[in-house]
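Supplementary Methods, section 5.1.

A reviewer requested that the exact input to the structure prediction be made available. We therefore reproduce it here, unchanged from the version used in the analyses.
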Amino acid sequence: MLKQLPDLLYNFGQSQIDQKYLVAKNLWRRAEIIEEYKSSLTMFDEYIVQNGERPEDIALHEYKNPFYNWTILIINDIVNYHDQWPRTQKQLEDYVTEKYAPTDSEPNRGPTSTKHHITTELRDTANNIIVPAGKIVPSNYSVSYFNGSVLVTANPVVSITNYQYEEELNSKKEKIQIVRPNYIEDFVAKYYYIVGRGRTTQIGSSTADISMG
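The structure derived from this sequence is encoded token-by-token as follows.
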């Protein structure tokens, strides 16, 4: 995937006189590809990653070619597989246990300790939303409102544990976009065209010096 991107000579020296160049891949070109294809919504399907499923598994199932796994990473702008791809149930449990392990300053911290509190949806008898769900609030948050002619005070709050919080983040990662199978060959061909067009090597001192063409 990255081998096809053009090289970039980036000056990391302290001045323009004493130039020190680092050879890197022009990831800005990669961003151009994502932006260009994201505008064509008919090319994509939403896909829910199953527990333990990897990009190559999805590519094999959808495209009959596991080596098209990179297209999934490109479309979803995944540059750090470890952090951005959904964890398996076991990986999630291990991750949360390690991340929220007790410390000297927080000896009672753990996966089941409270991360924060959020609101639950609250409606009146006319079905009007008084409080939307999912807003982070203090544990003692309360709201008073007229329900008809009666003044009501409610405490629409629930606690969210560290594990529940990380589980929700992981669930969001499970929802990805994939190129529809009938468009995949066109996408691959266009990808190689875009990354290869123009100059193969650019020189820059800052991001302002980097062009897409």
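The first helix runs from residue 27 to 38. These observations are discussed further in the main text.
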